[in-house]
Amino acid sequence: MKRIGMIFSILFLSMPVAIAQIKSTIHRENIKTVFVGNVDPQQYIQSQPVIDLRQQDAWFLSFDDLSLKTNTYYLRIISCQSDWTPSSLSEIEYLQDFNDIPLRDAKSSMGTKVPYLNYHIALPKVRISGNYIAQVYANRNKRDTVLTQRFSIVENEIQVAASVQFGQTNASRATSQVLQLYLKYSDGLMIQSEDDLRVFVRKNNEPNFILKNLPKPVINSMDRSIRFPSFNQENSVLAGNEFRLIDLRSVQQKLNFVSSIEEKETETIVKTQVEVPQGLYTYTERRDLNGHYIISNYENVHDTRYADYVICQFNLKATNQAPEDVYVTGGFNNYQKNATNKMTYNPTSGMYQANLVLKQGIYNYRFETKNPSDYLEGNYAQTENQYDILVYFRKPGTRIDALIGFQRINSIR
């Protein structure tokens, strides 16, 4: 009996263990406004930036801590494969300097009702391209994770050309967009087959890739080109709609799409104008930030530490309650759909509402369910979207998916 148990244990331990993807996640309620950037936050912030390998100097990680406690935080960089699972590389293989950097220089907010400490730290430089996670942990315990934030490093070794067109069938022409993709590689890359490449496309910087299964690539070794001919609309995607916008930069005056501002002693409540599902109406052209957001204070534009945290009440008027839960999503919360951004339905008023704590700025957002058809906002082929094309290549003799090509394009109305 012991021998059978021992054999079973050996078989169990030898079975492959699935490695989970690492997502951009905040693990503590007191941590807010996490992003990786290289410019003043008054420029728009992407939820998942792509950084040139040769231009890493100005990039940093920023976040706020509303607890005001003296915490000992450390920054750690984790190398990942193209699917965001951790790689097997050692730190010395992908980092130029040391890992596990203490965060020492927190700066206090200035003149805000909600006090906070802002942490700002330069990202350590990496040696090779690919996907990376900025992990912040506390108390010298790597398992005590405070936050994780995705970013990518690219070395452009392959030319990426792409265009966006309307859907190519009668059924999809009004609601979908089609991505035409073309790659051109140099003599230095030994691309033997389609299995050597991983090509992903994401829309509006969403963390979940929307085009994972592109058409089978056709490699022409004569002119070193790669095409993705489509026969069954594999490269088609629902277009969605333009993002909604709320301008929270001021608590002294109502800016764009603000209905009311309620000042209290320790907090400020800003209510959005009452909105309705856009999917019920025809397409309306509006300028947006493609899901991104900006941190700024209207009265003190030169220092974001004057930007306060406000309670933003989102209001959606619906004729009937939706069959699924409704969420407020955008780049500011990595498009997540969970309890923190779930809306509550009031059957008496027919109103969906959600109160989110946001730092002053300009935010793009939308109302979504977990239904992929996105019927609340609708799908319109005229929608202007931002598409990121990321090309990964496992070079011979390596154990990492290098990011060798990147292109960002916008669809044309």
How would you describe this structure to a colleague?
With 413 residues, this protein is mainly beta. The protein folds into three domains: 19-154, Immunoglobulin-like; 158-239 and 382-410, Immunoglobulin-like, CATH 2.60.40; 244-368, Immunoglobulin-like (Sandwich). Helices cover 4% and strands 39% of the residues. It has two helices and 27 strands. The protein has helices at 2-14, 91-94; strands spanning 25-26, 31-37, 50-52, 60-65, 73-80, 101-103, 107-108, 117-122, 130-138, 141-154, 158-166, 176-185, 197-203, 218-220, 225-227, 236-238, 244-247, 258-263, 268-272, 293-295, 309-317, 327-329, 344-346, 351-359, 361-368, 386-393, 402-410. Strands 1, 3, 5, 6, 9 and 10 form a six-stranded mixed sheet that branches. Strands 11, 12, 14, 15 and 16 form a five-stranded antiparallel sheet that branches. The radius of gyration is 23 Å and the shape is globular. The relative contact order is 0.17.
Largest sheet: 6 strands, mixed
Radius of gyration, in Å, reads: 23 Å
Order of helices and strands: HEEEEEHEEEEEEEEEEEEEEEEEEEEEE
CATH class of the largest domain: Mainly Beta
Overall average pLDDT = 90
Q: What level of helicity do the residues show?
A: under 10%
What is the CA-CA span between the terminal residues? Answer: 71 Å
CATH architecture type of the largest domain: Sandwich
Strand fraction:
35-45%
* Structural class by secondary-structure content: mainly beta
Total number of helices? 2
The number of domains: 3
Kindly report the CATH topology of the largest domain.
Immunoglobulin-like
C-alpha geometry: globular
Any low-confidence stretches, pLDDT <50, length ≥5?
A: 1-17
Q: Count the beta strands.
A: 27
